[in-house]
Amino acid sequence: MYKIAVLPGDGTGPEVVREGLKVLDAVGESAGFKLDYTHYDLGGERYKRTGEVLPDSVVDELRQFDAIYLGAIGHPDVKPGILEKGLLLRLRFELDQYINLRPVKLYPGVETPLKDKGPEHVDFVVVRENTEGQYAGAGGFLRKGTPDEIAVQESICTRKGVDRCLRYAYQYAMKRNKDKKLTLCGKTNVLTYAFDLWERAFHEIGEKEFPEITRDYAHVDATVMWMVKNPEWFDVIVTENMFGDIITDLGAMIQGGMGIAAGGNINPEGVSMFEPIGGSAPKYTGQNVVNPLAAIGAAAMMLDTIGEADAAARVEKSIMTVCESHIKSLAAGRMGYNTQEVGDLVVKNL
Amino acid sequence: MYKIAVLPGDGTGPEVVREGLKVLDAVGESAGFKLDYTHYDLGGERYKRTGEVLPDSVVDELRQFDAIYLGAIGHPDVKPGILEKGLLLRLRFELDQYINLRPVKLYPGVETPLKDKGPEHVDFVVVRENTEGQYAGAGGFLRKGTPDEIAVQESICTRKGVDRCLRYAYQYAMKRNKDKKLTLCGKTNVLTYAFDLWERAFHEIGEKEFPEITRDYAHVDATVMWMVKNPEWFDVIVTENMFGDIITDLGAMIQGGMGIAAGGNINPEGVSMFEPIGGSAPKYTGQNVVNPLAAIGAAAMMLDTIGEADAAARVEKSIMTVCESHIKSLAAGRMGYNTQEVGDLVVKNL
Ligand SMILES: CC(C)[C@H](C(=O)O)[C@@H](O)C(=O)O
Ligand SMILES: CC(C)[C@H](C(=O)O)[C@@H](O)C(=O)O
């Protein structure tokens, strides 16, 4: 029995989460485990009603779960930033989910915007540091509102934070056992403080603790180029928070877009949170047309992390079958099936 | 008569610069202007010989020119960062080249890695702030070398620096007269100091001074997605230094890669510097196989900036003809012609 906190969130979040839970229940039943869900109505609606984004008491409750399953955050009537910072980023920080894990895998049958690239070329994982860098929120203004205004935004990297992220990435490259290669994505020639620390830690830990892993380095600007031109060069990429944000969205696009991309906010020693990385798609709300595969993929990642690797693999395999043999497109309204039917297809193919 | 400082630089830099000068001379002769070149042997070789990257006296001399034409910087025997910081970044800062201008245009006949995208889809310009942000180099370490080490890397944005960049971008969107749209690429929901300043300045200047320009905003993570999925959405993009570095390299890739992408480091009130944005490609040095079109494109941008817009347009048109009707590929060694022959083709088609 696993205790799961469910945060369906805004817009189409609840619709896709419903399909994720359907699949989780089905795979749990056949594999012999149970999931117990507690729903939290956090998001834009609650904020509009109560002015509250995330009560402190809820943060404490969330610490008690085996995992958190999140739909989508973002409401057309709420100023951008409030829910993202107040909910998503706050949970990442308070639950110390220091890894953002983003597999970038093109499934057979899925359309990529890249020419001449297929599933054999697009299969890598980004390990993004999730609690430091410019996301720390440090900075300020001088002479705000005057022509002499200066804004400072600080990126803070700690050796402790970088080390634990690097170790996770190295271990992931070991476990994945593909090319046994870890690429540090940075900007050593310009960010000479932040990436000096990253680079030293990268080599020290790699050399001492993971001699089997090949260490590679790419500037962030080169990384985005190779992702588009030669995605097959990558196995596992590790990077800091802001660069990770950018390259994982590019990754989502080359693996087929928001309809398929899932991510995990992981605290290996605590409570992790899994989410489809698309938004709340408010214009489709209630229409039963958006693609739930990303949310189902997030559910699979969750299973893997709580210790049900076999069940996770079965869900992923079923998603692949549905992509390859059933749905026409990943795009909302063009799948050839509605949201619930796609969920049913995944259950049927488990 | 224009006075041009020529910095051929490292690796294949001199080979491509030679073709650029050939084209400049040809178009100047037929258009009735002359260019007077002064060569500077800056780069990795000189650094190895003398330990000097960029003498102060040279910086002062460079201020006297109408423009600077740069080949490529980067030497296999020189530690990465030394030449980039000591030469390229130093010139940007000391000559206050506060704009990095990067047209992203797919020419007919040029191969893009994007599926279903042609010249009608890829035609936008990135205006990158070139003297502030994390490139300011501010930051430091605490407890360096210990497990408690902290590295801080600061992004500094000034209202003055942002304003002048925005005004340039708005003016560019007016002059370009395509969609009359300017997209601010930022991260307002996380970089709440830096992009608060940017966003306020963006709207204030746009509203007051450029009411005809449509203002658009995209987070940097969304920007890289749309560049790959819907590049046709963009007209002019304006952004800060680090984001600009990332998105312009992605832009270079979707317009066909390093063989074609050119950029300008522009001080509208001072001396500007133009460069092909690819590297020095040391492995091809002296082989007469690399593509000079990016360097020739940089020469065209230079002509435009010094006031020879017609000549610039003729060079660009000739590059397009050569791409469409002559060379087989932009890649080194696969053009169907050698470096010099491609230069000759551009001259012939002027
Ligand atoms: C919503 C936003 C704050 C968030 C981020 O920047 O991390 C998102 O883009 C993501 O990648 O999860
Ligand atoms: C060489 C490097 C310092 C430079 C930068 O980061 O600006 C380059 O990537 C560029 O875009 O011109």
Automatic annotation (TrEMBL), chains A, B:
Keywords: Manganese, Metal-binding, NAD, Oxidoreductase. Residues 3-346 form the Isopropylmalate dehydrogenase-like domain. Its cofactor is Mn(2+); Mg(2+). Its EC number is 1.1.1.85. One of its GO terms (molecular function) is NAD binding. The keyword Manganese applies. It is an enzyme of class 1 (oxidoreductase). The keyword NAD applies. This is 3-isopropylmalate dehydrogenase. It comes from Dethiobacter alkaliphilus AHT 1.
